[in-house]
Write a structure and sequence with these properties.
By secondary structure, the protein is an alpha/beta fold. It is built from 15 helices and 19 strands. The two termini are about 25 Å apart. Bound molecules: ligand BES and zinc ion (ZN) (2 copies). One zinc ion binds near residues 263, 266, 284 and 346.
């Protein structure tokens, strides 16, 4: 972010904003309007531009100011204005800039007066960067019309200073999110348990404040991690339990464990998925990708908390060695689970990962898992389901998700459903007796392994992978959901 007079900037696209239904332009838009002798306001009126959220109008200033084009973007109703409006508007700007092949874009920080320069700049950078995300690794040809340089400019020194701070945080939020998206978008063939484990090791190598411990098949046998071992026994690729630790330079205020489901591919096992449902199942390590995405930028964000990242990388396959419906596994905790359905595999691996996490005696545990199709039935594709044993931690996550512009909604951890997972021949069954309430019965099983530590479970089956774009900055494909919420959470302590 830098200081400058918006009307004097030389660029391909100059971007200013306007709220819905305001009679006169204000801020940077009014500066531009004055420089154009009132022409901007006239054109907006002619073009029926009302300032609805993400509405755009393009004007050619014809030499009255040095910018080649001016883009006015609507921010919607001022009463509904929040950070995510800015994020979405910035994302929309990216797509317009690309359509006009504008290489150098200059933007005012949208709504800096109404939010704060810091929040505005942060959300703008997130929107721009995330909108520009693409996964081109497997493409021969790519479209090169994207902007090379997008700059935030203001004539107000205070806005520049605070904005710069927000901008730097926004860059990290977007970087972590893109990191998670890349992991999830990568096909199962190139994202085996070992690849996921290596991704964690690589993060640890890049920073002296992050360490990585890896437990392989032999270690897991010694530890009695029968959940992880049982689910992965049908695969040719051995499982790994991965444990990342971030230690802050100053004394840590809290210790928090982030646990992710890490099924690198979920065929369903012998309770085989139909082809159409199996197709997207490279996304089943989305929880661990969010944890890794957060760790990828944690050392630069420097929160004052000790953070543990834990996941059990497994592949759920069919073979002569695969686990059968009806088999019983003994988890690390000693509790046994009868596998009524091999497609309810995530919770069985999480039983061990969560127990391992709880043994670290953290103040908080948060797990993220693409756990149940039922959660998509309940909340749709864009909303994360949240359940937990700690209202305080759930409140913190709600706040963090608002900051992050990610959507989550609490579902009850209904005690009366506990009898549904009580086992006949084992301590527990891995599925409930009813086909209803599957998101809750899954969470109730997880609860059995957190050793009463304050814990929240986020079911991200819906939002982990977008079958169609969610918004201007979340295109079809992996979304990296959870990364920004986790980062906002650790930042909040
Ligand atoms: N990985 C799936 C859940 C999932 C579904 C994630 C759709 C993302 C999109 C999980 O392992 C699973 O198969 N769950 C079963 C549980 C059932 C067998 C009790 C489900 O939801 O159908
Ligand atoms: Zn499954
Ligand atoms: Zn799964």
């Amino acid at each position: 972010m830098r200081k400058g007079g918006i009307t004097e900037e030389i660029c391909d696209l100059l971007v200013v904003s306007a709220f819905y239904g305001e009679k006169t332009l204000s801020g940077a838009a009014e500066e531009v309007n004055k420089a154009l002798d009132g022409q901007l306001a006239r054109i907006l009126e002619e073009d029926q531009f009302k300032g609805k959220a993400n509405q755009t109008a393009i004007i050619r200033p014809e030499g009255k100011i040095p910018a080649k084009r001016i883009l006015v973007i609507g921010l919607g109703d001022k009463k509904k204005f929040k950070e995510d409006v800015v994020r979405a508007a910035a994302g929309a700007v990216f797509h317009v800039a690309k359509a006009f092949a504008s290489k150098h874009v200059i933007l005012e920080p949208f709504g800096a007066q109404d939010l704060s320069a810091k929040s505005s700049a942060k959300a703008m950078v997130e929107g721009l960067r995330l909108a520009s995300y693409g996964f081109d690794k497997y493409k021969k040809t790519t479209n090169g019309n994207e902007p090379d340089l997008a700059e935030l400019v203001s004539s107000d020194g205070n806005i520049v200073r605070q904005g710069q701070n927000g901008l730097e945080t926004g860059e990290l939020m977007a970087e972590g999110t893109a990191f998670a998206r890349d992991l999830v978008n990568t096909p199962g063939e190139h994202m085996k348990p070992e690849d996921l484990m290596q991704a964690a090791k690589k993060i640890a190598r890049s920073s002296s404040s992050i360490k990585c411990k890896v437990m392989d098949q032999d270690d897991l046998e010694e530890m009695g991690a029968g959940g992880i071992l049982g689910i992965s026994q049908g695969s040719d690729h051995e499982p790994y339990l991965v444990h990342l630790t971030y230690t802050p330079k100053k004394k840590a205020k809290k210790k928090i464990a982030l646990v992710g489901k890490a099924i690198t591919y979920d065929t369903g096992g012998y309770s085989l998925k139909p082809s159409a449902s199996m197709l997207g199942m490279k996304c089943d390590m989305g929880g661990s990708a969010s944890v890794l995405g957060a760790f990828a930028v944690l050392a630069k964000l420097e929160p004052n908390v000790e953070v543990h990242g834990i996941f059990a990388a497994c592949e759920n396959m069919v073979s002569g060695r695969a686990i059968r419906p009806g088999d019983v596994v003994t988890t690390m905790s000693g509790k046994t689970i009868e596998i009524l359905n091999t497609d309810a595999e995530g919770r069985v691996t999480l039983a061990d990962s969560l127990y391992y996490a709880a043994n670290l005696d953290p103040d908080y545990i948060v797990d993220l898992a693409t756990l149940t199709g039922a959660c998509m039935v309940a909340l749709g594709e864009e909303i994360t389901g949240m359940m937990g044993n700690s209202d305080a931690l759930m409140d913190k996550l709600v706040d963090a998700s608002h900051e992050a512009g990610e959507k989550l909604w609490e579902l009850p951890l209904e005690e009366n459903y506990r009898k549904q997972i009580k086992g006949d021949i084992a301590d527990f069954n891995n599925t409930g007796t009813s086909r209803y309430g599957g998101t809750i019965t899954a969470a109730l099983l997880l609860e059995q392994f957190v050793q009463n530590k304050p814990w929240v479970h986020l079911d991200i089956a819906g939002p982990s992978f977008a079958e169609k774009p969610f918004n201007s900055y979340t295109q079809k494909g992996a979304t990296g959901v959870g990364v920004r919420t986790l980062l906002e959470l650790v930042k909040s302590f």
